[in-house]
Structure formats: C-alpha cells, structure tokens
Amino acid sequence: MPDMRSIKTISIRRLAAGAARVFTCLALVAAVTWAAFSLLHVNSLIAGFSYVLVVLVVAARWGLAESFVTSVAAMLCLNYFFLPPILSLTIADPQNWVALFAFLAIAITASKLSSSARQRANEAQARRIEVERLYQLSRSLMLVDTTRDLGPQIAGHVKEQFGFSGVAYCDGLTGELSMTGSPDVRFEEQVLRDVAVGEASWFVWRKESTKGTEIIVAPVSLGGRTVGSLAATGPALSEPALQAIANLVGIAVERARQQAAASRLEAARQSERLRSALLDALAHDFTTPLTSIKGAITTVRSEYGHKPEEDDLLAVVEEEADKLGGMVDETVDLARIEPGKPRLRRCQLPIANLVQSSVDRMKSLLDGRPLEIQIQEGISSVNADRDMIGLALRQLLGNAVKYSPPGSTIAISANQTDGTITVRIRDQGSGIPQDELESIFERFYRGSRARDSVPGTGLGLSVARDIINAHQGRLWAENLPEGGAQFSFSLPVFGEDRKP
Q: Do 421 and 472 share a domain, yes or no?
C-alpha cells in the first residue's frame, strides 16, 4: 500500500499548508489591530481602511478563501476594538451596524475582485507558457529526422517541452507503440490502439492514476482522419493545449510521410533515368559489332561458294544476327521511354503496315502460330511514332504468345469508329483474374498465375501503356466470355500534329 500512503501524505501536506496560511492571515489582522489600537490609537475609519488593505494583500497573495477568513476576522476586531462600546462585540449606535456590514461587504467584494484578477493573471501566465511550449514543440517537430523511427522522436519532444513524466505515441497505420519517460509509468495500451484506429468515440480519455496524477489519451488527427494517438501523464494542461499538441503531432506525422513518399518517388525516378542510360549505352555498344557480323556474313555468302550444309549454317547465323539486331533496336526504343513521357517522332502510319511489320519482326517468336488478322477496309492512317507504336503492339503480341497455349490462335483486328482507331489482340489463354485487370499495367507487376511459370520482368504492358497514353490513346484489358483475354488500344486518327 505504498501508493495510498503517498496520497495521504500529499493530502496532509496540503492541509498543513492551508492551515499555515489561515494562521498567517489571523496574525496579520492581530498585528494591524495591535498597532492601530495600542500603539497609534487611531479611530475606526483609519482602522477600517487598514483592515481593507490587509484583505487586499491577502487576496492578491493567496486567494478567495484566505481573504474571506481575513475579512471576517477584521470585522470582528473592528467591532470589538474600535466601535462603541469598546472591548465589546455589541454595538450601541445603530449607524455603526450599517458601517460594520458595509465594511464587511466592501472587504469581501474587494477580496473577490482581487482574487479573480489574480486568477485571471495566473491563467494568462499559464496560457503564455503553454503557447511558448507549443511554439518550441512545433520547431522541434519540424526538425525530426525522417530517416529514423518517428514515434520515439515525437514522444521525446512532447515530454521534453511540457515536462510530462511519461509520453506514449501509437501509430495508426502500423499499431506500433513508442514510450518514453519513467519506467514506473504505465499506459493503457489497448486504449491507445483503439483511439489510434478511430474506434474510440471520445476526444480525450482521462484517468486518475494511483499517484495522484492524470493520464490522458488524445487522438492525433489531420483533416478529419485519425493517424495515431498520444498519451501523457504529468502536469495538467488545458483542453485547447492538448488539442494543439495533437494537431502539431498530426502535422509532423503527415509531413514525415509525405517526405518519405517524395524520397521514394525521387529514388524511382533516378532509377528509371539510370535504367534508360544503361539501356541506351548497351544498345549502342552492341550496334557496331552486330553491323560488322552482318556485313561479314553477307559478304561470305555472296562472294564465296559453299557446300549446301555450310550455306545452311551461314543462313542460320545471318538470321540470328537479324534477330539480335531487332532486339537491339527494341532496346534503343525502350531507352527512349521515360515513365509517362516517351519521346515521339510522328508520321502518317497505315494500320495495315503497322500490323504486318510487327508480325514480321516477331516471326521467330510466333513460331508458326495461327494468326487471324482482320483490318477494316478503308481504315485511316494514324499520326504516330512508327517505332513506338510498333514496340507497343509487339509487347502486346508477345504477351499473348507467352500466356496462351502453344499452337492456339492469336487474333488481331483493327476498326475505325468516329475518328478513333481501335486495335485488338485476342488470345485463347486462361484469362486475367478480375482484380488484376488494372494492376497488370503497373511497372514490374507480375500476375499471380504467372509469377512462377512464365518468365518476364513485368515491364512490357507498362511500356505499352506509356506509349499509348503519350499518343492520347487508351489501353485496356478484358476477359472474353468464350475464354481468353483481349488487349485493346485506341488511337485518335489525327494526332497532336494535325487537325481534321
């Protein structure tokens, strides 16, 4: 029971301090009475003003209770020592009754006004101190290190600025709890988590601890959204101060999260730039030896005679060199693409030529796959970048080959409607999970059905989407009722370089 003994000790000390103040007030009244009656022999008017002065001093120094005791004691002394009959509590002249009660009313009123003024001054001083501490806290929270855990820093700064014996912060996203202060301080962890996730309906949760202090738990909100909760125990604070602390912590948390998101975005941007530079450098480094190999093979086949077996081998080498050349060309095209900002070189491009050239370049990958190509008669040309649109179409064709059974048919169609040309690539695969129809266009995303069974990087569809978007078009995917998936992209007949 050590806590109960400490509470009793504190109560006894408070009572002793109150009793000491009361005895001091009575001593002051006695001293004024002795000086006015025995030493100076003043009349009742001077004595009354002296007592009023004592009451005002006591009210300004301690408060209303002490000043009220002083007023009553002063009234009794004034009656006994200065109003006739002297040295008696009775009053002979009725007018002195009026004077006595007027003195009592004036003394009590003056003490109340003085006490109220003192209380307001104390409150103003407390608010000033709170504002200064809030200002210091805001500066501290603006300087938090976003590379370190945020919770311990928040708890430490709040404890330091407001002198709490213990502070705890609970993150609303992760539920992680950070505490600082005396190891004897205990917080309601479940209450902290309930407030952090917005399950608690109160604004401030309060509880009296066994040590006579108050434990408070306040939600940390920003823009009507709860981002965490803050708990503290120690000196009592006003409700506006608690709200201000919670708001400052909320701003600091949101700022730290935005900085972290901006850092991740900048890292991703720098990574994309590095990737583009590396692809560009590698592509150009491969171009020169491939050109030499291609030239040498062509010369050997045309200038020298060979046996049929040798000629077949040279033909294979030449064909593979052409494939490598095509791969290098696509690598150069990829290097030209930054996320959302491909660099375009537009020209008038017939859709039939686009489809045919893409199929020819992918002849080895298609490997005899049945193709159904349907191009609407009289379809218009599009104002587009030949290499970029070709790359997007090849990415969609390659995706259809990888995710459909060998030997199954791949259908390519194109039609024009109201100034828009739509190209569709349909396969006979297993389709796409409904909840992944949008996610598959994100960079490096791999579908749940193909992560372990189909090789790939998850970049192809993202590259195709960036290219189509740069041409003011749209790319989407859908599952067909008869089975399989269909990827479609639409392009305006007239691009940004021409007007109808």
A: yes
Triad 221, 225, 227: Cα angle to 5°: 55
> Within this chain, do residues 79 and 100 fall inside the same structural domain, yes or no?
yes
Q: Give me the pLDDT at residue 97, please.
A: 67
Tell whether 140 is covered by a domain.
no
- Using one digit for the tens of pLDDT, what is the confidence trace for 320-330? 777 777 667 66
- Last residue of one domain, picked from the residues 261, 277, 296: 261
Task: Write the pLDDT tens digit of every residue in 139-167.
Answer: 888 877 777 777 788 888 888 887 787 88
The Cα 254–Cα 242 span in angstroms is: 18
Give the number of domains in the chain.
Answer: 4
- Which residues, at least 6 apart from 167, have a Cβ–Cβ distance to it below 8 Å? 155, 156, 158, 159, 179, 180, 181, 230, 231, 232
- Please check whether residue 169 is in contact with residue 196, taking contact to mean a CB–CB distance below 8 angstroms: no
Residue 499 counted as domain residue: no
Give the chain's length. 500
Task: Please give the model's pTM, rounded to 2 decimal places.
Answer: 0.45
**257 lies in the same domain as 288:** no
Phi and psi, residue 420, nearest 5°: -125, 135
User: What is the Cα–Cα distance from 308 to 324, expressed in whole angstroms?
Assistant: 24
Q: What is residue 453's predicted lDDT score, i.e. its pLDDT?
A: 56
Question: Is 395 part of any domain?
Answer: yes
How, if at all, do strands 177-181 and 485-492 pair? unpaired
The whole-angstrom separation of Cα 491 and Cα 423 is 9
Residue type, 275: R
Residue 152 half-sphere exposure, CB side, CA atoms within 13 Å? Answer: 4
- DSSP structure string for 364-433: HHHTT--EEEEE-TTPPPEEEEHHHHHHHHHHHHHHHHHTS-TT--EEEEEEEETTEEEEEEE--S----
**362 and 283 together in one domain:** no
CATH of the domain at 377: 3.30.565.10
Helices first, then strands: H and E counts in the chain:
12, 14
- 144 falls within a domain: no
Low-confidence ranges of the chain (pLDDT < 70): 1-11, 63-64, 91-100, 102-104, 106-107, 110-111, 115, 182-185, 198-213, 272, 275-284, 326-327, 329-343, 443-459, 494-500
Q: Which domain holds residue 317?
A: 264-337
The whole-number pLDDT of residue 385 equals 87
Q: Do 304 and 173 share a structural domain?
A: no
Verify that 77 and 164 share a domain, yes or no.
no
Q: In the prediction, which pLDDT does 235 show?
A: 72
Question: ω into residue 492 within 30 of 0, thus cis?
Answer: no
Question: What is the rounded CA–CA span in Å between residue 400 and residue 480?
Answer: 14
What is the model's pLDDT at position 414? 92
Look up the CATH number of the domain holding residue 241.
Answer: 3.30.450.40
